[in-house]
Design a protein that fits this description.
globular; 5-stranded mixed β-barrel; nucleotide-binding; about 550 residues; binds ligand 87F
Length: about 550
């Protein structure tokens, strides 16, 4: 029987919004949006009559109801749509795919310099391969989705959909690697993976199917492998900091939090101040020789001796888009950092009754778009004449282009345009002749400003503590906590239990990472949780 539960998201505000998510059974979800009356426009219908038209707008504030704000920004900002047939799956729209492709091009160019080559492996994993070594999949088993039938007949043995591809790829490394001349072998693939998250699915951040790249490399020596882990971590950090304008922390995962199949997991971590939760932004694992042993991946060295290879695996997913939206989005909608913005400039005409013919303004808009295109700047016009310009401003703000250019009769007369920044709302009038130079300059300023603002917020949210009492208080204040720790597995488990969950359902606190850049640790420093001698400073917090 299909259960039908209606969840009212409590979005009926003075704006008259009304969004319902109807969970019809545990695996499907329906999103109904009924007229979010956040903007009205005069629309001329086919018979030439004016009528009021409504626009989908954000009905809740980021710092009042973050969960619904985020869902609305993603949907109304046209990054994605909820897939109603299967819960936790989302349709990525062109805007999201364009950002993903910017990330992909940047990352591909970087790993090409490292001689990594692109492959594509099948999405199916046999049960035998996936369960070859039960240990590495420990804890993950409930997330594996299985194909059990084809048409009317049951499969003899179920086949898994890849949750990650170690067990798909490594049998072939065993075949392909014979001698030291076959090393290093560096594979990357861009693909989709499936992880059957049972609850708490969130657009981009936790979905049952997502896009990522997964790198899998094999080396003759541990040193080479360890160097690559760091090199890749650096590229990931650049994707976040330089493209997405999101500050991240590079660090090492604790024994509890590392990938069970790895020798050591390094990661970059971001922090969402509104929820006070950390979020793993990408990982780079040194797998050591664990998988080499499991899959018999050996090579003959220069002296004719057989040795096991040293392996790494590393991944960055579309979660990055979610982290970017959470970081920069505001009460008006998405805010794109210029470097990844699908559209960097939107050009809108501002007609004044009886002044200049609308067509003349539209032509001026198109001319500006052409000039921008010629300079290699992604731009588009919004010359729809059935919406007021105020309505179009709000609509474009929702979609996040970094700059808006307005052209009205006075601008035409003065040979200028008005430029408005999405991040600060600042306006300036610019001569047509200076347009390209000014736009380029503003885009750089916006990119830097978004990063600087996010970095400042991160610093404001970070709290150094030394005692349990300070820790509890900082956690209550939704801080990212840096604390001296004895590095014991049991102590981390205990902290998780003792810190309980918060009002938003965030679980207990855990380590996010031990930063590579360590503050000085006085010799007599004690662990904030156990009172034993501290070995390191680690970041703690609730997390996604
Ligand atoms: C879920 C189900 C089954 C994560 C899973 O991080 C297996 C797994 O092995 C699983 N979730 N993992 C760890 C993935 C490790 C590693 N793989 C390559 C990465 C980056 C890319």
């Amino acid at each position: 029987m299909v259960k039908s539960v209606e969840v009212d998201l409590g979005t009926s505000t003075s704006l008259g919004s009304d969004t319902k998510i109807i969970i019809s059974d545990e695996d499907s979800v329906q999103v109904e949006t009924n007229q979010l009356l956040t903007g009205e426009a005069s629309v001329v219908n086919s018979s030439g009559k004016k009528k009021k038209e409504t626009r989908l707008g954000i009905s809740v504030k980021k710092d009042e109801d973050f969960g619904n704000w985020y869902s609305e920004v993603c949907r109304f900002g046209e990054l994605l749509e909820y897939y109603e047939q299967v819960k936790g799956c989302y349709i990525l729209k062109p805007s999201a795919m364009k950002i993903w492709n910017v990330i992909r091009r940047f990352f591909d160019a970087e790993i090409e310099k490292m001689d990594v080559e692109e492959y594509y492996f099948p999405m199916f994993v046999s049960r035998g391969a996936l369960e070859k070594e039960k240990d590495h999949i420990k804890g993950f088993a409930p997330e594996v989705a299985w194909v059990t039938r084809a048409g009317e007949s049951d499969l003899e043995t179920p086949i898994a959909l890849r949750p990650t591809s170690e067990t798909v790829i490594y049998p072939y490394l065993s075949k392909w690697i014979r001698g030291h001349r076959d090393l290093p072998l560096k594979i990357n693939q861009w693909n989709n993976v499936v992880r059957w998250e049972s609850s708490d699915t969130t657009p981009f951040v936790r979905s049952r199917e997502f896009l990522w790249q997964e790198g899998h490399t094999a080396f003759a020596t541990k040193e080479e492998a360890e160097q690559e882990v760091l090199d890749v971590l650096n590229i990931y950090s650049r994707v976040y900091e330089e493209l997405l304008a999101v500050p991240v922390i590079k660090g090492i995962k604790s024994e509890n939090e590392k990938f069970a199949g790895a020798f050591e997991t390094k990661s970059i971590e971001a922090f969402i101040p509104s929820t006070g939760r950390g979020i793993q932004a990408a990982t780079s694992h040194c797998l050591g020789q664990n998988f080499a042993q499991m899959f018999d991946i050996t090579f003959e060295d220069k002296k004719g001796k057989r040795s096991m290879v040293w392996q790494n695996s590393w991944g960055l997913s579309t979660r990055s888009i979610g982290v970017m939206v959470m970081t920069h989005g505001d009460d008006k909608g998405v805010v794109f950092p210029p470097k990844v913005a699908p559209v960097k400039v939107v050009v809108i005409q501002v007609p004044i009754k009886g002044a200049v013919d609308d067509q003349v303004l539209c032509d001026a808009c198109e001319a500006v778009v052409s000039t921008l295109h010629e300079a290699g700047i992604r731009a588009k016009s919004d010359t729809r004449d059935n919406y007021s310009c105020g309505w179009k401003y709000a609509d474009q703000e929702l979609k996040g282009a970094p700059l808006r250019i307005e052209i009205g009769p006075r601008d035409l007369a003065n040979d200028q345009v008005r430029i408005v920044r999405r991040d600060t709302g600042a306006k300036m009038d610019v001569k047509r002749g200076d347009l390209i130079e000014q736009v380029k300059d503003l885009l750089e300023k916006i990119q830097r400003n978004l990063y600087d603002v996010a970095k400042r917020k991160l610093e404001e949210c970070t709290q150094k503590v030394e005692t349990w009492e300070e820790f509890e208080e900082a956690l209550r204040q939704k801080k990212l906590i840096l604390a001296p720790w004895c590095d014991e597995v049991e102590v981390e488990k205990d902290v998780r239990k003792r810190s309980g969950s918060d009002e938003t359902g965030g679980g207990g606190a855990k380590t996010l990472c031990t930063p590579l850049e360590q503050p000085e640790l006085r010799e007599d420093t004690l662990c904030f949780a156990s009172g034993k001698p501290a070995k390191k400073w680690s970041y703690w917090g609730r997390s996604y």
